[in-house]
Amino acid sequence: MSKTAWAWTWFGFLLALDIAIPWFVLTHVEKMSGAFLFWTIWVAAAIISAFIIFLRWKEVKR
Amino acid sequence: MSVTFWVWFGIAIYIALGLVIAVMARRQLGAGVSEFFLANRKLGGFVASLTYSATTYSAFMMIGLAGLTYLSGVGALGFELTYLCGMFMMVFFLPRYWLAGKKYGYVSPMELLSDRYQSKWVGATAAILALVFLVPYAAVQLMGVGYLMSGVSQGVIPVVAGIIIAVLCAIAWSNIAGMRSVAWTDAFQALIMIATSAAVLGVVVAALGGFGSFFSRLESATPGLLTVPTAKGAFSLNMFIGLALPWLFFLISNPQVSQRLFIPKSVTAMKQMLGGFLIFGFIYTLISVLWGLSATLLVPGLENADLATPSLLTLPIIPMGLAIIVMIGITAAAISTIDSILLTLSSVWARDIHKGLINPRVSEKRELRVGQWVIPIMSIIAFVFAWWAAGKTGLAFMIAPLSAAASAGLLMAVPTIFGAFFWKRATAPGAIISCVVGAVVVLLFQLTGWKPLGWWPGTWGFIVCVILFVGVSLATKPPKKKAEEFIGYLKEKLAEGRFI
User: Fold this and answer.
1) What's this model's pTM, rounded to 2 decimal places?
2) Distance of alpha carbon B200 from alpha carbon B195, whole angstroms
3) Is A25 among the domain residues?
4) Reported confidence tier of residue B388, pLDDT bands at 50, 70, 90
5) Which of B 81-120 lie inside 8 A of A, CB atoms?
């Protein structure tokens, strides 16, 4: 699988978690350590993975 | 001195500083359309990052998102962070837009579509979508400023006065030096936004006894707001998808932000723009949601949740000076979004409607003049909409749902944009029919309030749009030569820059 395909797959996985965890796993956890903490860590993972990808970019010739 | 005096004084200082920055930006203004609308594609990473942040984040955050959090709890955080997660797609789209913009000289994202699909009607269709659906989005910014100034001055300053101030600032800052004045004032305003909101949240959390005590009180006083769906039924899965789906693709569906993908001067500037924005967005989102949650404890029982922020700012625990500075920070957030929308719509009208359809032989000077005239005209339309909507109540007229409704319409251009970069088989008829029918579905469902199966208008519109885009494209003839050349060029350059 190409790097592009891996990146799209990872993104799809993140979106699946976006629905699955808060609505089906944490739906009865009425605490800050529930959906609030999940979404905070989840988006941090998305941001870090974006950094890992774009920090490799280099200048191109015009 | 009265509160009202200090509010006016603060506004006057803010406007004066903004004008000084805009006039300084004008000294660097060169000639031509690309210079006016894109700062000649030569913005550094720091300013590009701040203008992207200030354009994206608006009154929606500290008023609309805070209000939605106040009403519906933690689901609002998930909704807004889904947008930020969607920014992951920038690793695909940012280099593609940037490379194509440099190579073909596109001024607007719609011009890219017209060229790629070899049909000026594709760009014109996307342009009309933007002109229609960005009006309510610009209007909610104006509403936010109006609510805020009225709230902080305890009703002495009428909502309409705040709206007028925002309109006049936006017209001035977008006209003085185009993208240069917008970007420079955006940078100034982004710094005010983040600093003031962090400061006031710190004061409120301290008053609540620190984060530990704040969270404990939330868990005991409003536990139903800390889960999805909430105890009162808000943020059902359908509501979440209905709100979050347009937000997920905001980075490409909203031309005022996708146009910014053309402006970094280098790959390094691109990286700084993206990295800076992601950090800014993460911090600002958490601040806005925590702010809304703190309002549930400190000002419970408000009828209009969009008034949560103005109500919090008038509490005795917040010093008047800080409240006024925060008000200016939120005003800055709103105006920095409106002026960017106005500038983009003016470029879209001038390039994709006037030059694309009405007068293809128009001179560059005349094209620029036409664009500049569009700015006050669109401002007046947004002003009328804001004035009308500000008098209404109910979920549909809250800032966050109105913003998402506007983006639901813009969402209809997303399959066309994906097709342009990733699918050689995509065709102009597929693009046009999917945009038009999808937008009609969204408008129809929004105006009638119809939600078959409980799905929101944007969800239905998007499903219809994708099916039509794929189906019609497969049944019609693609611009094979252009598709090969466009995607082939990008493929070669993407490999060279180690992009994906």
Assistant:
1) 0.94
2) 9
3) yes
4) confident
5) 81-82, 84-85, 87-92, 94-95, 99, 102
Which chain B residues in 343-372 lie under 8 Å from chain A, judged by CB atoms?
none
- Residue A61 counted as domain residue: no
CATH architecture of B3-391: Up-down Bundle (1.20)
Q: B493 Cβ partners below 8 Å, 6+ apart? A: A60, B95, B99, B103, B499
Angle, alpha carbons A17-A23-A29 (nearest 5°): 110
DSSP secondary structure letter of residue B259? G
Q: Express as a percent the part of chain A with pLDDT over 70.
A: 98
Q: Would you call B84 and A43 a contact, using CB atoms and an 8 Å cutoff?
A: yes
Q: Touching check for B233 and chain A: CB below 8 Å?
A: no
Query: A16 touching B, CB under 8 A?
Result: no
Residues of A in contact with B81 (CB under 8 A): 39-40, 42-43
B148 and B165 Cβ atoms separated by less than 8 Å:
no
Task: Give how far A29 is from chain B: nearest CA, Å.
Answer: 6
> Does B229 lie at the interface with A, CB-CB under 8 angstroms?
yes
3-state DSSP assignment of residue B264: strand
Nearest to B128 by CA among B335, B334, B356: B356
Q: Within a domain: residue A37?
A: yes
- The pLDDT of residue B303: 87
Of B427, B342, B313, B324, nearest to B168 by C-alpha is B342
Would you say residue B496 has pLDDT above 70?
yes
Residues B366-372, mean pLDDT to the nearest whole number: 94
**Is the per-residue pLDDT at B87 higher than 80?**
yes
Per-domain boundaries in chain B: 3-391
Give the H or E element holding residue B198: helix B179-207
Please say if the pLDDT value at position B394 is more than 70: no
> Is the pLDDT confidence value at B390 over 80?
no
Tens digits of residue pLDDT in B143-168: 888 888 888 888 888 989 999 999 99
Q: How many domains does chain A have?
A: 1
CA distance linking residue B78 with residue A43, whole number of Å:
9
Give residue for tokens 């190409």: A2
